[in-house]
Amino acid sequence: MDADFDLLQELTEARGVPGYEDRIRTIVKRELEDHVDEIRTDSMGNVVATVEGSENPDYEVAIAAHMDEIGFMVKHVTDEGFLQMDTLGGWDARVLRAQRVTVHTPEEDLPGIIGSPPPHTMDEEDRESTDEVEDFYVDLGLPADEVEERVSVGDQITMDQDTRMVGDTVTGKSMDDRVCLFQMIEAAKRVDPDVTIHFAATVQEEVGLRGAKALGVDLDPDLAVALDVTVANDIPQISDEADYVTELGDGAAIKLKDGSVITNPKVHRRMRTVAETEDVPYQLEVLPSGGTDTAGFQNTHGAKPVGAISIPLRYMHTVTEAAHEDDVDAAVDLLTAFLDTEDGENDYTL
User: Fold this and answer.
1) Catalytic site includes residue 205
2) Which residue among the candidates 205, 285, 325, 342 is catalytic per the annotation?
3) Residue 194, annotated as binding a ligand
4) Cα 128 to Cα 91: distance, rounded to the nearest angstrom
5) Is 155 annotated among the ligand-binding residues?
6) Which tens digit of pLDDT belongs to each residue from 249-290?
7) What digits encode the pLDDT tens for the residues 61-75?
8) Which residues does the record give as Zn(2+) 1 binding sites (predicted)?
9) Is residue 310 part of a domain?
10) Does 162 carry a binding-site annotation?
11) CA 91, chain centre distance (Å)
12) Is 167 inside any structural domain?
């Protein structure tokens, strides 16, 4: 990768479920404080780092990438000392079997496992049953009385996985959306904008775009661009190429629509023009379902022009999410070029 792999690794391996993004917030503030004119947080935990425009400072652009990852909250401790979980974000329960996790209490982090009964003891009904999150328990390997003393309802649970290069891809547990948070940080370090840019690291996206909706009111930008991952179903299990959405290695994805938003045509056309002018590889994204912070800004404080740049991602919402290194670099380059060429004079009204 052209960009800083060590920073991407730190961001993706750090833990932060919706509403508890503290560790990510610390990294973001550390990385941006020397590159912006002002940095602040709000009562929800959103981080806003502002670079004042040199030519047209009254025109404001908001760039948003979310800090939170999907995870769980402890909802019950059984008499035997096992933990029952409530979801924070969308999980496919099939990927939870035999995974290592960390339970985060106010005092400490505790290692745990989500066990799976051995096949030797499963009858035919068990083998054919459909997994549900409520069927899984976290085993801390501790006596019940010690678990009761150290863990409480409301403590958070995250998956354990390191981040590494696998071939030309970078894979880890929370590429969604830390790889785009990384993209935003890298662009913030490079831009010299004519207009004012608010680089916003948002909270609670995975549970309903909550941070972006609140931030859209507080900032009231003239233009908003969200950064998130998108589906890359270019894998053997998907036979119809029309269902790929995007493909790894084909460049940054310029979003046309998803389940929550139809982006402003003038915004996404300008993104395409910038990409072609700067020779940045790109592809177009039409995502049938799912939502991003783009929708959080579109009409929160009146109608706003919105756009989105996505990074293609295989195996989304698992612990082995994978992005291509060239797509990451392309997304950083496209965002940087788009911001450096925004002068506040573009007419995005329809």
Assistant:
1) yes
2) 205
3) no
4) 20
5) no
6) 999 999 999 999 999 999 999 999 999 999 999 999 999 988
7) 999 999 999 999 999
8) 66, 176, 228
9) yes
10) no
11) 14
12) no
